[in-house]
Write a structure and sequence with these properties.
Number of helices: 9
Structural class: alpha/beta
Shape: globular
Helix content: 40-55%
Strand content: 15-25%
CATH class: Alpha Beta
Strand order of the largest sheet: 2-7-1-8-9
Distance between the termini: 9 Å
Order of helices and strands: EHHEEEHEEHEHEHHEHH
Bound molecules: guanosine-5'-monophosphate
Length: about 210
């Protein structure tokens, strides 16, 4: 069967949720081969840019008023407040990519992930967990970008998110990075192989060939 995109098959929407500091970025880098064809959705946020971050690449860094205008205009697929800042996924680029048959990856916290699942029930929900809360705390501190109060609030959010992990389709524990990347590659391959994704046009083309 011809499985190339372009016969009307929509892209897959992958959602990564996991505490800040859990290593979602490192995992993406380690599985870059599998993610090469997956478009990373750049979120908007009101959070201050960290020195290593680039506007338009890591996030679209916005003033709160601009973010609120986007909410009012209904431009977000989802949005949520996290430890004092607003974060949201601009809907238009995601919809355009999926319609063109491209797979898309969102990296968002729990409230946003639930909103996505409510409106896109076919989204593939992947929870990234730390090996332990002590290790998560060590990683958050090691990053050296947050105040003690913010670290505590981020740890509290992490505990809440872990309580919700059974809402997700897959769990990846980011302990040994290469093993976590291997699991992620397997998840992507399995999801692409799901039979229900095949559309009528592909079957018709196959039968006519
Ligand atoms: P950070 O400030 O560490 O970059 O991100 C804080 C949290 O916000 C992380 O859990 C991250 O996944 C989440 N986040 C990033 N972008 C979005 C977004 O567009 N929507 C939602 N709901 N959460 C996001």
């Amino acid at each position: 069967m011809d499985m190339r995109p372009g016969r009307g098959r929509r892209g897959i929407l992958f959602v990564f949720t996991g505490a800040s500091g859990v290593g979602k970025g490192s995992l993406r880098a380690a599985a870059a081969d599998a993610l090469r064809t997956v478009i990373y959705s750049v979120s908007a946020t009101t959070r201050a840019r960290r020195p290593a971050e680039t506007d338009g690449v890591d996030y679209h860094f916005l003033e709160r008023a601009e973010f609120e205008r986007m909410i009012a205009r209904g431009e977000f697929l989802e949005h949520a407040s996290y430890v004092g800042d607003l974060y949201g996924t601009p809907a238009a680029p995601v919809d355009a990519a999926l319609a063109a048959g491209r797979d898309v990856l969102l990296e968002i916290e729990l409230a946003g992930a639930r909103q996505v699942k409510a409106v896109r029930s076919e989204a593939v929900m992947i929870f990234i967990a730390p090996p332990s809360l002590a290790e998560l705390e060590r990683r958050l501190r090691g990053r050296g970008t947050d105040s003690e109060a913010k670290i505590q609030r981020r740890l509290e959010r992490a505990r809440e998110e872990i309580r919700a992990l059974r809402e997700f389709d897959y769990l990846i524990v980011n302990d040994r990075l290469e093993e976590a990347a291997e699991t992620l590659r397997a998840v992507i391959a399995a999801e692409r192989a799901r039979a229900w994704r095949v559309v009528d046009d592909e079957i018709d083309a196959f039968l006519a060939s």
